[in-house]
User: Fold these one by one.
Assistant:
Number 1:
Amino acid sequence: MNKAMETILKYRGRCVSQDDIATIKKVIDSFPGSSRRYISQELCRIWDWRQPNGFLKDMVCRSLLLLLESRGFIELPPRKCTPNNPLANRRKPEKAGENRRRRNAFGMQAVRYIRLTGSSSKNLP
């Protein structure tokens, strides 16, 4: 088997070879200053790597690029932005019994019980 065609790793059904690594490096070098997203989309177009609905597999490609970078095969350009992740920045839940009486934004204790009463349609205009 040709050394360039030898599979380095298999990722989500795609066998990655030395030729693929060379293609990735060429795309990164050809588009300096481009985002990782653009690079992954360009690779998907080159490889015709698509979902069954025809859309590019650019998210899968980006995670492949991150894996290849973590293993030392490629060097990606720096991130242009880090999207806000509300799950990563959330408050830890309170333990049972802690801070049962919290004050709201107006300095009042939170209302624990509300009494609802019915109304008659006769009173409506």
Number 2:
Amino acid sequence: MQTANFQIVQPLPDPLFSAKFAPEKRPLLLDIKIINRSQHELPAYQSALAAGMDLRADLKQSIALEPMERQVIPTGLYIELPPGFEAQIRPRSGLAARSGVTVLNSPGTIDADYRGEIRVLLVNLSRERVEIESGQRIAQMIVAKHERVEWQPVDDISATIRGDGGYGHTGEK
């Protein structure tokens, strides 16, 4: 197996705040209303170019997830998304790799008209019991723009080379 060697000469500048980036090159900052009823900090990006913000468990006491068990974990957060946006709840790769815990309905979708608490459906896919502690980063949230569709009923749709080739149609290798 080959491994690549990378060396970072200096840290990447934070594109949200660095004066080195022209204003038109900075990512869009979207103001989102949030109520934090948890005992933890607000979701935050963990690196300058991260797409997702980490969500933390808000628990009165730790929860044990047995192998193949699933539980809905509260975060204590409530958000108001603008129309045309959704929040996607996705697994944290480190949590999944280290302990086999992932988000069961991944990605989970929070619609712009939802006003309830953000809760995360976790499942333990490992063979070991896993403890979830209050304040533990359990998932990541990505706020994304989306489109709505208006269906146009027709009798035919255009042909493509792929056609109706679905699961596995390109082979195994």
Number 3:
Amino acid sequence: MNNNTKIATFRDYSSIGVTTVYFLSFIILGVVTGTHGPSIPQYSNMTDVSIESVSIVFSSISAGHLLGSYVASRLYDKFRGHITIAIALILMSICLYSSALVTSLYMLVLFTFGIGLAKSAINVGCNTLLVWVQSKAVAPYMNALHFFFGFGAFLGPLIVTYSLSKRDNISWGFLLLGIITFAVAIWCFYLKSPTAPEKEMNSHVENSSPYFAFLLITIIFLYVGTEVSFGGWIYTYAEQMGIADTQTKGYLTSSFWGSLTVTRLIMMPLVSRVRPQIILIGSFLFGLLSLSIIIYFNSIAGAFTGTIGLGVGMASIFPTIVVLAQNRLSITGRFMGNLSIGASLGAMLIPWIVGQYIVNNPPSFLWLSLLTLLVALIILSLALIREKRINN
């Protein structure tokens, strides 16, 4: 690799330090996300409310994520990015541990709202800064970043399950996670922040349509809503259907995030060689097939097979959407913030809708997941066809 490539400039920001902080931040982001679903029964017991009522935490997290995405997108374009990420990590550590101690639903909603704020700032920041640093060579790095999110999400349910089995509560696991998060925040404070590169106004950027950006945001809305809903509710689905014991339910949730993680690891050397359009279409089709397996077989074996398959199918969608956008749009903190807002709305609305029906009709959550992925695939196809016609 010659010294003129964009990757070489990564050394300006302390290559090892910067990449380690981004990846550690996304591990933490994944762990926290992975704990939401398995913590629902515990939250219900702590606050003495029904599962249907406590499902509002999904909405409070996403509402915080929505507001945080709007604010963070402006901050990263104007201020030092690493300071913003560090503050978000500190907020995450405080709210996470506090959420494991409260007995009031209102306080639980407040702290989970804070978790959502922190998650959005970390998400927007790491995605944006990584694109600024790596530019056209970002594809494998972006997949690696989201691989670490999946790795963290795989660990999340295991942490909850272990904490419950040893202490009969989730506070011990959340305390340990909070300490680690705070330590990463302190490290982040001492790293030099990258700055936005000068825009290269090529024909793709000049001719790119806001309509195309809107379609990408809509796809992210549907994708993230499905991912968060499935990762959060598959534990409760297995419980309501009576197909697994407590330990197995935790493993079922982890199998989703685990397969998602392994697939991202496998895809890292491939994403720079395969067109993003091919990866996206194949991912959605595989996800639809996997959900169909869970619905058709209605057993623990079918649930594990379909859950692992869905993790494989959904693994590369988000990072590949970012790569696809970079080929046609100018990536700024504001654009990544808008993408995150779409993700927040999906993560807020779709799991909440599922929560209203899953107790009385558990399979409804699978049918809704199937529908959202199908609509996302249709929108993607329309967007790609339209862009091809414009380019021609």
